[in-house]
Amino acid sequence: MSSSDSSDYEEMDAEPVDAIPCVFCTEASSNDHELISHCAAKHGVQLNSVFARMKDVFDVIKAINYLRKEKPSPEEFSLLSSAQSPPWSDDKYLEPSIPNDPLLRVDFERSQDHNHDEDSMNDVAFLREQLDIAHQRIVQMQKTARVILDGRQGQPGDVKISRAVGDLKVSEDSGYIDSYSQIEIHETMLQDKRRTESYRDAIVTNTPMVKNRVCLDVGCGTGILSMFLARDGGASKVTGVDFSEIIYHAMDIVRENKLENIVHLVKGRLEDLELEPADVIISEWMGYFLIYESMLDTVIAARDKYLKPNGVMLPNRANMYLTLTDDMELYKQHVAFWDDVYGFKMSCLREPAIADGVVRQLAPESICGSTATIKTFNLYTVTVADTMSFRSPFELKSERDTTVTGLVGFFDACFDLPRKVVLSTDPRGEPTHWKQTTFLLPDPIKVSANDKICGTICVERSPRDRRGLEICIELDGRPPLKYHL
Known about the structure:
By secondary structure, the protein is of the alpha+beta class. The chain has four domains: 3-114, no CATH class; 121-161, no CATH class; 173-314, Vaccinia Virus protein VP39 (Rossmann fold, 3-Layer(aba) Sandwich), CATH 3.40.50; 317-484, Hnrnp arginine n-methyltransferase1 (Distorted Sandwich), CATH 2.70.160. 35% of the residues lie in helices and 23% in strands. The strands form four sheets. Strands 8, 9, 10, 12, 13 and 14 form a six-stranded antiparallel beta sheet that branches. Strand 6 (278-283), helix 13 (296-306) and strand 7 (307-314) form a beta-alpha-beta unit. Helix 10 packs parallel to helix 11. It comes from Galendromus occidentalis (western predatory mite).
């Protein structure tokens, strides 16, 4: 805080201070030093340090009024205080929640300067925090060393670099994390009824699997699945984890729906946290073409670290499929377009345009072939290595005389419970926000009914982007076709 703000606050502090109610419980302290000691010892929150870091006295006032009005837990307040835009930034929190609140007359800068015992506690806490950080870095370096040593092939120095998401630095993954801090992406997912209702139905129709159980929601976002587990499933406790800023809104949502006694939210990267074992792990981890974004890595890490013996994974199985399309309009828009652009030839752009997998909801009538399963993931046994790279032969039969313009990838996620639920992205079913991924052909293939198109598809994680995919499709008798997502 500025010196002028500080001096003004000292004048306020010159008045006698009444007993100060705690911001986290019903106890009251006789003075500010006693309150600070109480909050540190009983709730683990260093109020003087938190408030002294704020830019001015108005931020302190708003934070105190927020604490009084919204009553966040000590853990939630500690998380919120490190946010770029904490919820008490709103000027409505300038209005006191308690008339003549004695806490508003305390100078926390001066309290911090005069309270030597608390300073000593802060120093110890700071040193412990630094020691924990150093330990985490050592553990991470050991992991990296193992990856490098395990990846050696043939000659010394020939090293295979890890493509696992868990080995990414936070700075390397910030783009992905920040994308889920935006409201728009959560609005899209929540408005996808097929997606959201499939998860809800799996919980509601199979409550014995959830009732009185401890649950973990990986990548909880707005907290919708956590709240389904608490309200509809009867879970005894739900821990929701998310690394993006959206979790601060989720905390407000949980409180607004009066589920804070059951749903507990934690901000952080799951791979770096220490949580209690869970009876049920739920996650909406699927990306385009199922494994784009590689969030399955995090779900696997959660399963290996936290799932109890005989625990339940929701969903527990996922399948990837291929079929055929004869959507000529899509082909003209993305491929043939480059042959004549306002009278100019831009054919050099055909190849890079084809290489981009097209995420689009296809019309059911544009599907012209049978379906082939190219990969199945069992969530109880799948490993990160299983998702890194796989190769699968396929055979697709044409359903009519037509011209095939591309191969279409889609998936389903299965809840194999007593009352089974399947969330499908099949283009012949109800649309979802995942749509389908179409791999357009450079040259369409004319076929007759019952003709077969055979080949092999290879899917592997991109060496340049651990959350991206490289796809190679080899059709019999034709050059390999390469795509990326």
